[in-house]
Specification:
- This protein is an alpha/beta fold.
- It contains three helices and seven strands; from the N terminus they run E-H-E-H-E-E-H-E-E-E.
- A hairpin with a 4-residue loop joins strand 6 and strand 7.
Length: 147
């Protein structure tokens, strides 16, 4: 597994975005559907990260937290973004009934917050892991991992 660590202020995310683009865009060009797995404590900035990254693809849609709807879909010229938040789910059985595994790795780019409950249902080969750790009120550490 390859890794990259970045320590940045919240308004300096361009290096993380460039690294993520370098992983996601080749997948899309090869018709591989990447799955970005976001990890971080409540309030670490997972949805903000998703919103800011996706806004760079000239979509006029505002990315919001899908906590209550469980997922939202957004369209850009290059791809559709499927943004999941599994925080409210309590078991893998509950998740299985929703049929999300029919989307993960099969449609657009998927970003999944609070993904660990679904680990056994998410394809392994096209995973990109991003861990966000709060260092202070305005700075975060970002760790990217991929195969």
């Amino acid at each position: 597994m390859k890794r990259e660590f970045l320590f940045l202020n919240e308004n300096e995310l361009e290096p993380v975005f460039q690294s993520l683009d370098g992983l996601v865009l080749p997948y899309i060009k090869s018709d591989i559907k990447p799955i970005i797995l976001l990890t971080g404590e409540m309030g670490a900035g997972k949805t903000t990260f998703t919103r800011e990254w996706f806004s760079r693809f000239q979509s006029n849609q505002n990315v919001n937290s899908p906590t209550f709807s469980l997922y939202n879909v957004y369209d850009a010229k290059e791809f559709s973004l499927y943004h999941f938040d599994l925080y409210r789910l309590h078991s893998e059985e509950e998740l299985s009934e929703l049929g999300f595994e029919e989307i993960w790795g099969r449609a657009g780019v998927c970003i999944i917050e609070w993904w660990k409950i679904a680990s056994s249902l998410i394809p392994i080969e096209n995973r990109i892991y991003i861990q966000i750790e709060v260092d202070s009120q305005h700075s975060r550490s970002y760790r990217l991992e991929w195969n």
